[in-house]
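Researcher: Here's my situation. A collaborator sent me these components and asked whether they could plausibly form a single complex. I don't have experimental data yet, so a predicted model of the whole assembly would be a useful starting point for our discussion.
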Amino acid sequence: MLRIDREIVAAIVAHARRDHPDEACGVVAGPAGSDRPTRHIPMTNAERSSTFYRFDSMEQLRVWREMEDRDEEPVVIYHSHTATEAYPSRTDLDLASEPGAHYLLVSTRDPEVAEVRSFRINDGTVTEEPVQVIDATVDGTAVQTYKFGHTPTMVDYECRA
Amino acid sequence: MSVDVRIPTILRSYTGGEKSVGASGDTLAELIDDLDARYPGIRGRLVTDEGALHRFVNVYVNDEDVRFLGALEAKVSDGDTVTILPAVAGGAPITR
């Protein structure tokens, strides 16, 4: 399961909307070993393509070093699909290179409702996981979970465990 | 043993979990050969059967992407840091 702050999900969706029709991509870093994504880092899609993404290599070096200096790791790696569902493609599986990361996909094909889903990708095998969206502004123990529903805003937190 | 090589998470199975290992060579190709002698199999993750750097592996000498330094012919010397990072990439299920 991916637990992630509502504000971060909203920022990721906003990034995907902003870059549409190109694919958007980025990282949410978190303390190493915590499995808690806390620092959203939008990345440049060096491909500037509606069907492909690749982190800019120099930006990736800078961000990866920064994470190491801060004792962080890439907890979430996200990208958008602009015309298809939020499900990893064959290419996504073949190129997945962070076995510990949650791979978050956002589909911007619907201009009104963004589809957000999370996956683990290991050795070419994809496993979907639920997304639990946390409201950081309220009591941290009063966690709300959205499943299969539409939130009052524009995000569809679709979870198929 | 004079070049510090930073190993990404996904390749640490080759280095016994080490994040950073030493290797030697005058060029990146020699450095990778030396690495492979110590950690058999790692070369195949970095270099294709045709002998080119894998398209989706980023290698940096200090702060430079080796693609701008001659790729496998890039010079390395004592005290350099070589960083290996798998590219973060993917795409939609559409043919371009």
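Model: Some features of this prediction you could bring to your collaborator: The CA atoms of residues 15 and 124 of chain A lie 27 Å apart. Chain A touches chain B through 34 residues (CB under 8 Å).
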